[in-house]
Amino acid sequence: MRSILFILCFPVCALADGFALLEGDQPLPRPEVIALTANQSLVFFEGGVSQYSVGGAYSYTYAGGGTAFGRYRIDPDGVICVDFRNGRHRCDQFVRSHGRVVMVTEDGQRFPVRP
Question: Which of 25, 55, 56, 96 is most enclosed, with most CB atoms within 10 A?
């Protein structure tokens, strides 16, 4: 019975961890994600700005105004997850793609970071 449950659950579990990466995407390892984010502001081409505090505080300021606040952590595989104050949760993966750093969301959206 447990083996049947495992087989039924496996495809869902495998997809839950995955990010839709494109050919040529190279996920940044944890040390590079730390260097990229620690006490840094990342500006995206659509105008939003992510601010990562060394202590784990996070804020995202939208291009049109307004800011969302939360706390972030970087998992051993380099995936960065944010728990927002409003109860929402999101995980992202930073990749190097064709010479540019891109943030890939769990739902497949891609946000290039300005140099």
Answer: 25
